[in-house]
């Protein structure tokens, strides 16, 4: 069977395997293979593999000792993995329970199965879940060397953005002042702090802020992380001119917080601005909104225009890396 793989030189194999494993991208259903001096590492989501790695497809042998849910069901179920949890999106309750039973009977290291019961809703962007297996909705997720504990019923978290968060984190320098305006449990904050930045995470969700503090402790960066439960507009004046880097990952309404962002920005500040727009003009509305808010106080330049993922038919989730210089 043709399987997406990362191809690396054998001498780089272990380091690459660890990085992919930290991002939860290794496909355990297939054997690692060595051929022609290269190591082939099977991956679950080729689009999530960091750009520095080469992705190819090639035939791989299935692990004979591992029983997958598809082996028990007779079809390939659709689900996301988050830590030791499988996340389903099934409208049919009977089918969802059938998949949950197969996940538990398989050899996959999964103990919890949750089925989505609502869309993301409300100011805190949480959703309802049906707990089909496991004790509760709390999970532990690893991503690029960072560990996060979170309760999916109480906080918003998307494992699909792991590669994008890693891309941004790699730009962070030690000694920076970075502020995440909608921080959640810290998927930007923690890796920033691990790279030596002083980081402030702000969120209106009290549960998310408590998890952010716990995750800072888990990752040994609590001395570089300040967690604030508030609407970021309420604390912008207190931290005026403080930030060298701002994250604005609230793609449906980040434009409403640009005035606060300009207040927080220092003399030379990079903003990672996330937006959802029609494919005909995915970057224009965000760039115009940023210029309207920041000029003429700042010179505005766009360093990167990036499509993060498809969001809906004809709609794209995009990121603008924008530099503000006074």
From TrEMBL:
This is Methyltransferase domain-containing protein. The keyword Transmembrane does not apply. Keywords: Cytoplasm, Methyltransferase, S-adenosyl-L-methionine, Transferase, tRNA processing. It holds the Pfam family Trm5_N. Residues 79-326 form the SAM-dependent methyltransferase TRM5/TYW2-type domain. One of its GO terms (cellular component) is cytoplasm. GO terms for biological process: tRNA N1-guanine methylation. PANTHER family: TRNA (GUANINE(37)-N1)-METHYLTRANSFERASE, TRNA METHYLTRANSFERASE. GO terms for molecular function: tRNA methyltransferase activity.
